Amino acid sequence: MRKSFIALAVSGALVAVPSLVLAADYITNAGEIVKAADWEKLETVTVELDDHNFAPQDLRLKAGQPYRLVIKNVGENDHYYTAEKFFRSVAWRKVQTPKPNGGEVKAPFFTALEAYKQGGVVEAFFVPVTKGSYEVVCTIEDHKDKGMHGKIVVE
């Protein structure tokens, strides 16, 4: 079965979301997990995208812990934060861009988050579910080869 994706532009960011998904491809009971999470214990992790690195390069997260992942572009170029296998392994609450001029998107999973150059910010709210190690890269041209790669480990 072929999958197609819709790209949604929200203030300062581009978010790719699936328009057709397969049930086994993502966490299907995400709504229950998100509702049961203690969002008052939310942990915020910030990753800066620069030309050409992620800071920090690697993340360590805990399964069951709610997070806000802030992707902030401090570079001169647009950059992606792409970790499709990781993005399919978490329970998504939403992805948003900051208020007052931002917006939010809710979907079963995302394939990539793009923060536009010189200050673009994307905030992702989720609960990690599946333990493991996941690759994260910038998929623009040769950015991965120049150092924009890392991993996300869920313990």
Helix fraction bin: under 10%
Shape from CA axes?
Answer: globular
N- to C-terminal separation? 32 Å
**Can you write the helix and strand succession as a string?**
EEHEEEEEHEEEEEE
Poorly predicted ranges: 1-11, 19-23
Name the structural class: mainly beta
The order of strands across the largest sheet is 4-3-6-11-8-9
Kindly report the CATH topology: Immunoglobulin-like
At the first level of CATH, the class is Mainly Beta
Strand content: 35-45%
Overall pLDDT level? 88
Largest sheet: 6 strands, mixed
The CATH H-level homologous superfamily: Cupredoxins -  blue copper proteins
Under the CATH scheme, the architecture is: Sandwich
* SS field, number of helical segments: 2
User: How big is the Rg?
Assistant: 15 Å
Total beta strands: 13
Number of domains: 1
Account of the protein in words:
The chain contains two helices and 13 strands. The protein has one domain: Immunoglobulin-like (Sandwich). It has 155 residues and is mainly beta. The N terminus is likely disordered. The protein has a six-stranded mixed beta sheet. Strands 1-2-10-7 form a four-stranded antiparallel beta sheet, with no helix packed on it. The chain has a three-stranded mixed beta sheet with strand order 5-13-12.
Q: How would the blueprint of this fold be written?
A:
Layout: E1 5-10, E2 13-18, H1 30-36, E3 43-50, E4 53-55, E5 59-61, E6 67-73, E7 79-81, H2 84-88, E8 90-96, E9 104-105, E10 112-115, E11 121-128, E12 132-137, E13 149-154
